[in-house]
Amino acid sequence: MKVFIKLSLVTFIIVGLSGCIGEEYDFSPPTITLSASDVVDVELKETNVDWRGEEGKQYRKETNTRNGINGAKKQQQLAVAPETQGNLRFDSEDFFVNDISSYIISSSNAKQDIRINEQDRTFTFPRKKGNYVYVLELQTDRGYAQYVGNVVVK
């Protein structure tokens, strides 16, 4: 009976550990989705990235500010009402967030900070109607990533 219990225990441990061996993890910057109530979600585009991936592998992407803004204007637009609550969703989070900040740039190139609730990653879109480029900056223990999106407040 003791042999049977030991054999069963060893088999259970081997089967349990074998599920962990073949797994692959993605340590790249997350895909971030911008959403608002009753509106189609929009995926933000990576512009500037300095990230350490698996085994410290470096991932870099540099876009100058003008190209990033122009690229955002070509993205799918997120149309929202003034002062609508927005939400950020990460597709993965295998890192520790040190700081998350965002701002919008109007068509006249005026910059306005957008305060993000870091607990639930919500914020409020501006009151003033217009076309905006939404910029998100993410600082983590794995590095830095900046994202842009196209927003219109109607």
Describe this structure in words.
The protein has 154 residues and is of the alpha+beta class. Helix content is 19%, strand content 44%. Strands 3, 4, 5, 7, 8, 10 and 11 form a seven-stranded mixed β-sheet that branches. It has a four-stranded antiparallel β-sheet with strand order 2-1-6-9, with no helix packed on it. The longest helix is centred in the first third of the chain and has 20 residues, at 2-21. The N and C termini lie far apart (74 Å). The model has no long low-confidence stretch (mean pLDDT 84).
Helices and strands, with pairings:
Elements lengths: L1 H20 L10 E5 L5 E2 L1 E8 L5 E4 L3 H9 L3 E4 L4 E6 L6 E10 L4 E4 L7 E3 L5 E11 L2 E11 L1
Parallel strand pairs: 5-11
Antiparallel strand pairs: 1-2, 1-6, 3-4, 3-11, 6-9, 7-8, 7-10, 10-11
Question: What's this, in brief?
Answer:
The chain contains 2 helices and 11 strands; from the N terminus they run H-E-E-E-E-H-E-E-E-E-E-E-E. With 154 residues, it is α+β, with helices and mostly antiparallel strands. Strands 3, 4, 5, 7, 8, 10 and 11 form a 7-stranded mixed β-sheet that branches. Strands 2-1-6-9 form a 4-stranded antiparallel β-sheet, with no helix packed on it.
Oligomerization state of this entry?
single chain
The radius of gyration over CA amounts to 21 Å
Largest sheet: 7 strands, mixed
**C-alpha end-to-end distance:** 74 Å
- What share of residues is helical? 10-25%
Number of helices: 2
Structural class category: alpha+beta
Name the shape in a single word.
elongated
Low-confidence runs (pLDDT<50, min 5 residues)? none
**Please, what is the average pLDDT?**
84
Note the beta-strand portion.
35-45%
Pattern of helices and strands: HEEEEHEEEEEEE
Number of E-state strands: 11
